[in-house]
Amino acid sequence: MEKTIALRVNGRAVSVTAMADTPLLYILRNDLALNGPKYGCGLGECGACTVILDGVAARSCVIPLAGAEGREVVTLEGLGSSAAPHPVQQAFIDEQAAQCGYCMNGMIMTAKALLDRNPTPTMDEVRRALSGNLCRCGTHVEILRAVMRAARLLSSPGAHHDDQPNARIAVPADADPCGADGGDRRPADR
Ligand code: FES
Ligand code: FES
After folding, report:
1. Is any ligand 2 atom within 6 A of the Cβ of residue 98?
2. 22-32, pLDDT tens digit by residue?
3. Which ligand does the CA of 46 lie closest to?
4. Strand blocks (E) in the chain
5. CA-to-CA distance for 120 and 138, rounded, in angstroms?
């Protein structure tokens, strides 16, 4: 049976009507049009679907919608925009830390959560934090450099960045984002 569940996504109150055990990833992608989080393994093993849940990096493919009730979710779209990237995003651009880019969401969101709790990590700490995020293209060296660069950017004098509430969520707080047809519950297209 479907249930209406309230949560906050990228700083906005959202109300979603869906089966309570629907993976949060499907809700973000299919119902809220937030395609930053990617569907990789669907088993909590690759990190492509990572979001920040109450300040902690979490795998949205294995978190049921009910598990996010009343909680704060931040997706890639909640960090910055192409016009004004978050320093972590800027660092990944500067280091050209992507080939296919499929792992980037998970790498960036995991790095963001790490830097929020530890603004000056060692390379070993960065390695440990990202050890569960898979990159099939082998851009690990550039990714590690990007996270260290992001730490420098964020800690440089005068550095300031307000995380930006997502401007692309078109779901009013009181709307049913499932629409009349109940939405598409299949794993999101890659
Ligand atoms: S898609 Fe969630 S961990 Fe792989
Ligand atoms: S850049 Fe392709 S999976 Fe990491």
Report:
1. yes
2. 999 999 999 99
3. 1
4. 2-9, 12-19, 50-53, 56-59, 72-74
5. 25
Quote the distance between the C-alpha of residue 31 and its chain's center: 16
At the fourth CATH level, the homologous superfamily of domain 2-78 is: Beta-grasp domain (3.10.20.30)
CATH 1.10.150.120 correct for 87-155: yes
Best mutation site among 26, 43, 53 for ligand 1, i.e. most ligand atoms within 8 A of its Cβ?
A: 43
Which ligand 2 atom minimizes the distance to the CA of 137?
2
pLDDT digit string, tens, across residues 155-179: 987 665 655 443 332 233 332 222 2
Is 106 close to ligand 1, i.e. is its CB under 6 Å away? no
Backbone angles phi, psi at 103, to 5 degrees: -85, -10
| Residue 96 Cβ < 6 Å to ligand 2 | no
